[in-house]
Amino acid sequence: MPEETVSRLPIKFVVRSVGEAEGQLIRHLAPRTVEAITTQLPIEGRAALWKEEVYFEIPVKMGNEKAKAKVKKGQIAYWPMGSALCIFHGETQPYSPVNIVGEITKGLELFERVESGTRIKVERI
């Protein structure tokens, strides 16, 4: 089991009918955004797809915080324009700048099998 530290919070994505993936929220990447997400955990939503990205709306409203127009495969980000949590499982770049909040550490490939409307739950490990 991953160890929780002040700067890194281990999380789990439970994707209905697909499986589970693990990741971590990394505070220094966007401290206010990570804090806002952390206080809402567990959160659940229905997947939407855009190219090689899975995203779903979450109950967090934040503006840009160290927002980036480019992401790396495996990164977790918050999309201010859509109030959504995004998982980038390929080389796709975001539609508009996102606040990078963490990374997938195990099971990234399962996001390739997610279909639109699939329920996804994010919780602490």
Polypeptide structure, described:
With 125 residues, this protein is mainly β. It has a single domain (8-124), classed as Cyclophilin, CATH 2.40.100.20. It is 8% helix and 42% strand. The chain has 1 helix and 9 strands, in the order ββαβββββββ. Strands 3-9-1-2-8-6-7-5-4 form a 9-stranded antiparallel sheet. The chain starts with 7 loop residues before the first strand and ends with a strand.
CATH class: Mainly Beta
Structural class: mainly beta
The strand order across the widest sheet is 3-9-1-2-8-6-7-5-4
Distance between the termini: 8 Å
The CATH topology annotation reads as Cyclophilin
Which range best describes the helical content: under 10%, 10-25%, 25-40%, 40-55%, 55-70% or over 70%? under 10%
State the gist of this model.
This protein is mainly beta and 125 residues long.
What are the salient characteristics of this protein?
single chain; 1 helix; mainly beta; globular; 125 residues; Cyclophilin
Secondary-structure topology with pairs:
Elements: E1 8-15, E2 19-26, H1 31-40, E3 43-46, E4 48-50, E5 53-57, E6 75-79, E7 84-88, E8 99-106, E9 119-124
